[in-house]
Design goal:
four-stranded mixed sheet, 434 Repressor (Amino-terminal Domain), 365 residues, 17 helices, 52% helix, 3 domains, 4 strands, single chain, alpha+beta
Length: 365
């Protein structure tokens, strides 16, 4: 949005008219039926134009009363905005630079840190918060409690709260999220759909994510991929709409099928096993990341995708052909197997990558 850093008092229009007419303030005051001091205060923006004064100015100057009142309202609003931005400027250091860049990239602000008050104001408007304290209060619980915000992120990575909340808010503005408000979720329906979801995920291609999103929508679960800010360490997150409807929001980072599919089933574990409506996110350390919630979600994904044998069929398997055969026997995509083999150190990171499918171009609605 584009804003000014100044406010135009309606008295400036009056002053311009006085000069154009070659009149004095006393002469105009006599016509308006007020003191010269009152006219001077209007000219300098110190006295507000009331409805009565707007009508008098209409008779004397010829500008409609409604216009004078609009000028007055705009002036007072601009003064309040400028004063508010000056107050908000102190919080600009709290906003991660990647969050502000992300807001500019999606058209939520044009401001940079050169206009700190405007940047903070636009940040708050994007989050629908009137003050910085309101924003902090709204989001302060995001990192509290073992089940507060379910998320899968890079090991050891740090995530700034303002960056997280901005990405989450971007998800709330999508059509998928809006449709989800009308869903009616039951865990039973989702559990019944798990075998079909697993079967579809075994064949990653250009339509897989759309198909999975449609299948999940049929059981009242929102699945969406929201492009993340730069250097955003999150893979996916689960949250709820009004504690009723689960939302799985993924970043699609790296784009490979192993990451995307594992993240999806990890988040489904949070949907089915964590307290409804609660949220959890570990911001910094691997120790915190290995919480009860995360371990349970990983175990859920492992059991569902790999079955009772877990990773045993892939132990000591190194060639692409052998990995592909083992994955087919288990009924999963080879890329998912490679992803877990890398994580378990069963396979060097430079092996198996040819089996992975790039889904980066398939994230649109």
């Amino acid at each position: 949005m584009t804003t000014t850093n100044y406010a135009v008092a309606p008295g400036e229009y009056l002053e311009e008219w006085i000069e154009d007419q070659g009149l004095s303030q006393q002469h105009v005051a006599d016509r308006l039926g007020v003191s010269r001091k009152h006219v001077n205060e209007i000219v300098n923006g110190h006295a507000a134009i009331t409805q009565d004064m707007a009508l008098r100015l209409e008779r004397v100057v010829g500008i409609p009363a409604a216009s004078w009142l609009r000028y007055e309202a705009a002036y007072r609003a601009d003064r309040a905005r400028i004063a508010g931005e000056q107050e908000l400027a102190q919080y600009v250091g709290e906003i991660d630079s990647s969050a502000s860049a992300y807001l500019r990239s999606i058209g939520a602000t044009n401001a940079t840190r050169a206009k700190p008050g405007e940047l903070v104001s636009d940040f708050l408007a994007f989050h629908r918060c009137g003050t910085w304290d309101a924003y902090v209060h709204l989001h302060k619980t995001a990192s509290q409690g073992d089940y507060a915000l379910a998320a899968l992120k890079e090991s050891g990575a740090e995530l700034d709260p303002t960056l997280l909340s901005t990405w989450l808010r971007a998800g709330e503005l999508t059509e998928r999220y809006e449709r989800g408000r009308n869903y009616s979720f039951t865990a039973h329906e989702l559990r019944e759909a798990l075998p079909r979801l697993r079967e579809r995920a075994a064949t990653p291609n250009d339509s897989m994510l759309r198909d999975l999103a449609g299948m999940l929508a049929d059981v009242s679960v929102v699945l969406m991929v929201v492009p993340p800010p730069k250097k955003f360490p999150l893979l996916g997150m689960t949250r709820w709409i009004d504690k009723r409807v689960p939302v799985i929001q993924q970043t699609g980072r790296w784009g490979r099928d192993g990451f995307v599919i594992w993240t999806l089933f990890h988040e489904l574990g949070h949907v089915l096993n964590d307290p409804r409506g609660e949220m959890h996110l570990e911001y910094s350390t691997e120790k915190i990341r290995n919480s009860v919630a995360e371990k349970a979600a990983n175990a859920f994904a492992m059991d569902l995708l790999f079955g009772e044998s877990g990773m045993e069929p892939f132990r000591d398997v190194t060639s692409d052909d052998a990995i592909a055969r083992a994955a087919k026997a288990v009924g999963i995509a080879p890329g998912v197997a490679v992803h877990q083999m890398h994580r378990k150190r069963f396979l060097p990171y430079h092996h198996g990558n040819r089996l992975c499918v790039d889904l980066a171009g398939t994230f649109s609605e």
